[in-house]
Amino acid sequence: MAASEFCLQKQDRYTDISAHTSGSKAFRIRPYRSPDREDIRRLCCDTGFLGRPIDRIFCDRELFADLHTTPYLEYEPEWAFVAEADGQLAGYLLGSVRHDFPWLFVYEGSRTALRMGSRSLKGVYDYHPRSRLYVHWLLTRSFRERPRHPPGAAHMHFNIAAPYRGRGVGLALWHAYERSLQAAGIHHYFGEFFSCAGRRPELAYRRYGLRIYDQVDTTIFVPEIPQPVHLTCVHKVLGEGRADKTS
Hints:
The protein is of the alpha+beta class and 247 residues long. It has helices spanning 37-46, 61-75, 101-121, 129-140, 169-183, 201-205, and strands at 6-11, 24-31, 80-85, 88-96, 154-160, 188-196, 211-218, 229-237. Strand 3 (80-85) and strand 4 (88-96) form a beta hairpin. Helix 1 packs across helix 2, helix 2 packs antiparallel against helix 3 (101-121) and helix 3 packs antiparallel against helix 4 (129-140). The radius of gyration is 18 Å and the shape is globular. The two termini are 25 Å apart. 32% of the residues are buried. Residues 1-23 and 241-247 have low confidence and may be disordered.
């Protein structure tokens, strides 16, 4: 089940302190359609390194996008939403409500990780040593650096294109997802994100009813980020807290 299309227009609350933003920005939230797939994969890679392009960490965009989008788009595309602005993809939210999704994610992720490992052994990444380190981390450490998840909860993963951050796009995607969850009788969900000094999304998300469920240290961005980086799982029970401010 997916929410019907709707249009939103949010006032940019940063107009008075930034010369690079307009007074308002119109965007549209709608259900995912198959032609959106390549744009979603591209945005996934453009934001894979703490909101910046993943290329510095891992050079194989094809397999990085497979790792982070295929489980959603192959098994539950009806739970995906996109945000459009100026005729372009401004953001996306990929969701899952299947109770076996963690196993599907592991299954698809393992297949992709093995393809990465094969390419690394064949020397495909020899020109980019950091990619080989990423594959090694994925195969040997990633499964030990994951937070616990709330049992029986739906799941969501989202990204916003840099020019549209701070304009309410993420919040509008959440609203669309939450309305569909409630219509389907599903009352809680979780998401994951990276958190480090100077980048604490959990502080903002708390205003919208999401609470930290678990948090673990991760070495995925070592040595690029010298300070500790945490992989954080946040959880929301629908009906608790409010999500009515710009994000």
